[in-house]
Structures are given as structure tokens and as C-alpha cells.
Amino acid sequence: MGRVGENGNRILASLLNCYLIYNSSKSSYFIKFVLIGLIFNIFIENKIEGTYEGSVVQHLESQYKKSHRFARPVLNESAAVYVTFRLNIKRLLDLKAKEHALTALIELSIIWYDEYLKWNEADYHGIRRVQIDNTQIWKPTIRIIQLIKKEQDESPITEVIVESTGRVSWYPRGIYTTPCHVDVTYFPYDKQVCKLSFGNWVHTNKEVFLKFAKWDNLSIDTFRYTTSKGDEWEITKTEQRLIRNVKYQMICCLKEDFTILEFKIYLKRNAALLSIVLLLPCCILMMINLLAAFLPPSSYEKISLALSIFLSYFVLLLIVVEHIPEGSKLPAVGELFIASLIIIALNILTSTVVYNIALKEEGDFHFQISDKSKRNLLRLAKILLVPKAYYVYNERENFEDVVNNQSLSYKETTSNSQRIEYNHRIKNWLLLASIVDRFLFCIYAILNVLTATFIFVRPNDK
């Protein structure tokens, strides 16, 4: 019969003796009153201490002395305590580029054997495991190396699960903030690698032997994690490894060997929203800037459009600054915006030059084109798809339409031959301006493609 059954037999024997004394004729009323109180007290104690699980907890508390809280739970001092460790990232909360810090909700699984927390299941009606407070027993001092900040969970787990074999399971969790170098070169298509390092600060490898425990359906080289679709960062891969025989730079333990548990987290930014907010407007403005080359070179709206695009970039930069992470290195999207601003500024400058070529004053009769040169220019104009209206002269076209926006003094001329000669001269200037404009369009298109390719199509080894 078990230990609880033996207690029950002693209680029944005590009650029987009290009953016999109570029925004795020699007993006084005072003695009978005391016996009734004693019987009631026995029933109360039996009700409180009658559960088998409670008896196990009381047995462990009485057996586990206070000195064991700080001493390794082994009967042989030369033996090591084997501790298995597992890590589970419940949620990735934040990755700040400015502070180079990773914040995550992490749950740990720490399992070891305690020689002082054993009992015989047969003595306690087959109770195999119980739950006790972890402040009353010894625990391995495993800490995060280079921890910035730790926030306790609203409902911290302060209990451990103890089995009859002495196996202790502890599942602490908390919000940890650790250092993580962030490289924003490829923002918003960047990838990061963060490391978490755990180590035992007190006991050496000979005293506490650390090792990994395998998660279900996972290899021994990876650990468990959870990601949500709406999170900014997505965990693509995890790795873990043991680094043994590490020497801490502490005066007390310069010659001792310790173990470090290293965990790697491979992260990828979800850039769908940032692509729409940042890159799509930039690409649209770049296309509009190129389409401005199809406006007539003699039109002032060509320069006005380029100025409007230039100012639109500055407005867009205010939005970009809110999304670009603050770091020591300029990200790729920032380089793209700077390159685009330079190209638009050059477009404004060249558009002004082309506009002045197209609107030469009437006194500029020095521009002469030979037949051979003109044939080459016409051939080049066809290749660049310059409209024929820029260089094909029609004698029936209205003179005022041809010389629109020109010097008003010329409108006072009366010689028709001078008008035809001037119209030919206007066509020659427009032909030259149109060819220069289309040639610059090709250069800017190539620059835009090369800039975007050079900025974004670069190897990212992470």
C-alpha cells in the first residue's frame, strides 16, 4: 500500500480510538468535547492533504532544501548536468535600421534532470508529473549575450513541470531586443541576417553540458518560428549551431571553456506596398520626362513640363523620407531618386538649348546647309522618327502660322520671296532642333535604364 494509503490507515485507527474513549462511561463531558474537536480536526487535515498530487508537492518541498537552489542538482559532484535547449520565435515584432536592433517574442524550452526531484509513482497513486514554482529549485543560468532590453510577458510562466524521474521542463518567454546589423543598400528589396547568441554565464562545460533538442518535423540544424502574412518582415530560413570551448573575457574564468548557442534568422522585407508608394510614382515621372521629348521643340510647354516634373520629385521625396530607414548608408531607392533628379535637371537645361535653336531670330541668316548635309540630316530625322512637319516646306501654308511666336518686326515685311526664304530658314532650324531633341531623348532613355539596372540588379549575398 502507498504512502497516502498508510496515512489513511493511521487516520482510521486514530478515529477508532477516539470513538472508544468517547463511549467510555468514565469519560467526562469536557473530555468528550475535546475528542469531538480532535475528530473534526482530523477530518479537516485529511480533506486538505488528501490529494495525491498535493502530497507529491509537499514531499518535494520538504526534500528540496534551500541550499539546492544555488547548487547543481547532482549527487556526484564530478557529474555534469545535461541541459537541452530549444528556441521558438513566436512573433517578429520589429527590426529598426537606425538602432540596428531586432525585437521579437521568443519562447524557450529548457529541459534538465534534477536528482532531488524524484519520487516513486507507486507511493502516490501513479502521479507521474506535477507543477511547482521555479523560484524554489535550481535553474541553469542561460542568458542572451549582448541583450539590449527584455520585456516580460503580461502573464509570465513561473512554473516548471517536474516528472517522477527528475526531469524538469521550463518554458520561459519574453520580448527580447538584441543587436542586429541592418544593411539598407537594397531597400525596399533588402534581406537581413540576425544572430541570437545564448550562453551559460556561471557553469563551464564540465559542470553544465548544453545541447540542442530537435523540434518535430524539423532538422537539428533549424529551429521553430511563426510569421504572419501582414508583417513587414518574413522569415525565410533559420539556422542553429553549437560553439564549444569558448573562453569568456572575464577575470574569474579566463581558462575555463563555455558553450555558446548561436541562432541565425534570415529575413526578407515584404516590399509590395513600398513598391507602390515609392517606386511606382518614380517610374511614372521618369516616363513622363521622356515623353516630353515628343513635344515640338519650339513649344515653351516642353520646358514647363520638365520643371513640373522636377518639382514633383521634391514633393515625392517628402513621402520617401518617411519610409526610408535611417541608416549610415544611402539605400538604392535614394540613389535612384538622386539619379532621376540629375537626369531631369539635364533635361531642363538641354530643353532650353533646343528651344533657343528652334526660335532663332530673323537676322540669323548665317545658317546654311549644303545639299549633302541636308540629305544626311533628313536621313537621320527619319531614323529618329522626327515628324515631317518640322522640315517639309509647304508654300500654301499660312505665313503667320509658320512664324508664330517670332519677332513682330518681321511681320511688317512685304516681300513674298523674303517670306519663302525665311520659312526655309525656320524649317532648317526646326530640323536641327528636332534631331538634337530626339538624340537627347535616346540618351536619357538609355541613362534611365542603365541607372535602374545598376542600382537594383546587384548581387545580394544575404
Automatic annotation (TrEMBL):
Q: Which GO terms describe its molecular function?
A: extracellular ligand-gated monoatomic ion channel activity; transmembrane signaling receptor activity
For the keyword Transmembrane helix, the answer is: yes
Q: Keywords, A to Z?
A: Membrane, Transmembrane, Transmembrane helix
Main location, first listed in the record: membrane
Its placement in the membrane is given as: Multi-pass membrane protein
Q: Which SUPFAM superfamilies match?
A: Neurotransmitter-gated ion-channel transmembrane pore, Nicotinic receptor ligand binding domain-like
Give the record's GO CC terms.
Answer: membrane
- InterPro entries in UniProt: Neur_chan_lig-bd, Neur_chan_lig-bd_sf, Neur_channel, Neuro-gated_channel_TM_sf, Neuro_actylchol_rec, Neurotrans-gated_channel_TM, Neurotransmitter_ion_chnl_CS
Subcellular location per UniProt equals: Membrane
Q: Which Pfam families match?
A: Neur_chan_LBD, Neur_chan_memb
Tell me which PROSITE patterns the record gives.
NEUROTR_ION_CHANNEL (PS00236)
- Neurotransmitter-gated ion-channel transmembrane domain ranges (all copies): 278-389
The question of whether Transmembrane is a record keyword is answered with: yes
The Neurotransmitter-gated ion-channel ligand-binding domain extends over 55-270
Report TM segments: 271-291, 303-324, 336-358, 438-457
Q: In its UniProt entry, what is this protein called?
A: DgyrCDS3614
Q: What is the lineage of its organism?
A: Eukaryota, Metazoa, Spiralia, Lophotrochozoa, Annelida
